[in-house]
Amino acid sequence: MELAVTGGRVLLPDLTVERADVLVDADEGVVRAVGQDLAGDEELDASGGLVMPGLVNAHTHVAMTLLRGYADDKPLDAWLQEDIWPAEGELTPEDVRVGAELGMLEMIKSGTTAFADMYFHVPEIVDAVADAGLRARLGHGVVTIAKEAETAHDDAEESIAVAREFDGAADGRVSTAFMPHSLTTVGSDFLDEYVPQAREAGVPVHIHANETADEVDPIVEEHGMRPLEYAREHGLLEPEDFVAHGVHTTPEEHELLAETGAGVVHCPASNMKLASGMAPVQVMHDAGVSVGLGTDGAASNNDLSLFDEMRDAAMLGKLAADDASAVPAEAAVEMATQGGAEVTGLPGGRIEPGAAADLVVVDLDAPHLTPGHDLVSHLAYAVTGSDVRHTLCDGAVLMRDREVLTMDEDAVLERAERAAADLVQRV
Ligand SMILES: [Zn+2]
């Protein structure tokens, strides 16, 4: 079946905008053509709208939607230890499934078609991705500190097993990664033992790194080197690997990232909310580092909209560089589309023949998007998630005229309210 997305304007890979139709091969899940007067077996109306690549949320913990607004206004360390970890300790597989569904519903409604996720009870998340119709790179987050050796090994084994089992699931829409939680919560002996197993399994490694100063200092003190140098020593930073945050990074570390080809996921809202710091995004760009954009979990954001994240990235990038020309609109849009796809190794991020048919249509007919001097500026600074009219992933329509077709919206919200209330009771 061929689907013609007609009557709109299209954001091309070079970030120019052209009046064009997009022809999608719904069976193969690819874009066949971008051009004038294209006809398919079916039509999707994009008139008055901008057809753009689906957004890539390159770092999140999607099931944390159940903890949205549960604990706010605390620094990372206290927030994790006093609120988040105790609550997460009570999460059942069913809770994770419900939280993941809620997050995916929110992503579909705000124009995200692909995401990278680090969490636990991953088989539940795989099932939810399969049903929702999104694309994802999933992994089990490993923590080994303050654990008995056997429990720590079990956790690492599970991350490898999940990566092996589910790579290619959901008709190829699910990819996986080995996901040690961070350089300070996973011991170096575990990295030495398990990272080679991830290489053997052919999956990338995704890890939090250089998020706060408190996380950097112990590594420097104990090992006499910067965290990313330490990561490299222990087998990380292959071209397919990607680290979340990179807030407290040095020029030497940027050089290391650029040399190795490993990517960084910038999470500006989470970094601001937890007062973690300002990532030197413009400096990383200039050094040739691949950068994607992520929301991080809903508990530290508190939404999963990448339109908000683009705005935050552009704004915070200027403040960090003390330069209003830093992280321009184009850079923010690039990070949320092609950059995220490149960093996570997921298809998508561009609309051109042969590319994955992961795309969204944004309604431009709104007061806050008028006049239309520069649509890329609007995407970075003025569009909100609720301006998204249609969402397609892998050639399938997931949302049409704001109605999500793959999920029962009311039922998802109701289950989430109930699961969240039960969870808080137990904690
Ligand atoms: Zn995170």
Automatic annotation (TrEMBL):
It is an enzyme of class 3 (hydrolase). It catalyses: S-adenosyl-L-homocysteine + H2O + H(+) = S-inosyl-L-homocysteine + NH4(+); S-methyl-5'-thioadenosine + H2O + H(+) = S-methyl-5'-thioinosine + NH4(+). Substrate binds at E88, H181, E211, D296. Its cofactor is Zn(2+). Keywords: Hydrolase, Metal-binding, Zinc. Pfam families: Amidohydro_1. GO terms for molecular function: 5'-methylthioadenosine deaminase activity; metal ion binding; S-adenosylhomocysteine deaminase activity. Residues 50-397 form the Amidohydrolase-related domain. Binds 1 zinc ion per subunit. Zn(2+) binds at H59, H61, H208, D296. InterPro entries: Amidohydro-rel (IPR006680), Deaminase_MtaD/DadD (IPR023512), Metal-dep_hydrolase_composite (IPR011059), Metal_Hydrolase (IPR032466), MTA/SAH_deaminase (IPR050287). Signal peptide: none annotated. Its EC number is 3.5.4.28, 3.5.4.31. Catalyzes the deamination of 5-methylthioadenosine and S-adenosyl-L-homocysteine into 5-methylthioinosine and S-inosyl-L-homocysteine, respectively. Is also able to deaminate adenosine. HAMAP family: MTA_SAH_deamin (MF_01281). Belongs to the metallo-dependent hydrolases superfamily. MTA/SAH deaminase family. This is 5-methylthioadenosine/S-adenosylhomocysteine deaminase. It comes from Haloarchaeobius iranensis. The lineage of its organism: Archaea, Methanobacteriati, Methanobacteriota, Stenosarchaea group, Halobacteria. The gene is mtaD.
